[in-house]
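Ticket #391: bound-state structure for dihydroflavine-adenine dinucleotide.
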Amino acid sequence: MNSQVIIVGAGAAGLMCAISAAQNGKQVMVLDHANKAGKKILMSGGGRCNFTNMFTEPDNYLSENEHFCKSALSRYTQWDFMAMVDKHGIPYHEKTLGQLFCDNKSSDILNMLLTECEQAGVEIRLDHAIEAVEKVEDHFELIVNGQPATCESLVIATGGLSIPTLGATGFGYDLARQFGLKVLDTSAGLVPFTITDQLKNWCTELSGTAIDCVVSCNGQSFKEAFLFTHRGLSGPAMLQISSYWKPGDSITINLLPNESALDWLQQAQADRPNTELKTLLADQFTKKVAALMCQDWFESRALKTYNEPQLKDIARQLEAWVVTPSGTEGYRTAEVTLGGVDTDEVSSKTFEAKKVPGLYFIGEVLDVTGHLGGFNFQWAWASGYCCGQAL
Ligand code: FDA
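RESOLUTION: The complex was predicted; output attached.
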């Protein structure tokens, strides 16, 4: 098993890198221990793959080095990927906030990548586990399924730790450490929160209820919907903010993201003085939500009976509800892994390890994590493409 280039990981980044390198005239072999390529692509976006975001910017990424992602994102943009999707006649639509989803199935995207690989002459070997890697002079020697393999360039595209049942392993981190590269602590990102305190009762009672909000934590805010679940809080707003949350932190939820709570309460008091607070809240939220608010937060009376300080207190609670999650659901359900191979170890132009010529890291294995909304795939495409061009 010899190839000029071996790419470990037939996921989003690995396949894109293979296409780019092979189109650039390289002989490319992709190895994956899973029995199928691109399992996360197939699972993504609820089966419709949110494959990029029209508003992709470096600000949509978390990394110790916020500048690292800029070069690749500007050299292979969302428009470049959309051009490939268009070339294959794949129908898609913008769902919201620039998020592009397939009209049909995620397999449209995976099939496109596999077709491109085939046309470029990429060899993909599944069910291939890498047992050992060594650098010998100017090439790499691997043991794969008990057999020796060699390559001049070795690309690690093994992703993060999220969802082990989809083939995720810490292989990329272990290999980086083996070659003396720094790996930053990892944690689950884009992940639901678990709740175990008195709020658990709300989660059980309101499971399935979604509310628009602005959620904030550690200086970052997102305006999206959140969802109560039996185990805690989920939905886009919570997944987004989870990437900024550390154990023990509180999050602040504004339940009236589109207006001033005090203006709303004062207007209602003027328009409907005899209406009970609970009825007003039920109009805005739901009956069940209003009932819990009036059980745990407010005394419900006719609106005309509240003085201004009391209305201000109600407004403050609605605009700055402080919740302290007990934890997250972890890698079992997380969409991404925060942290990973330190970007200081890698060139932002070529993705080659500065200390180990010939060794490359791309995609989620690096300490670059996107927001929810197609940004993680765009990072996989961009880093994969740019690395492939440099091989
Ligand atoms: P990826 O995880 O795609 O691929 C890694 C590959 O390496 C896998 O094929 C794996 O089997 C292989 N591998 C791992 N260890 C190995 C080993 N030891 N030996 C050999 N092979 C090994 N993002 C987005 O932008 N839009 C979306 O809609 C979604 N939706 C979504 C849903 C779900 C359920 C998850 C879990 C994630 C998403 N994401 C997403 C995130 C997105 O899937 C993720 O960021 C990219 O797939 C990362 O691409 P990589 O190629 O880096 O890793």
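RESOLUTION NOTES: The chain has a mean pLDDT of 97.
TICKET STATUS: resolved
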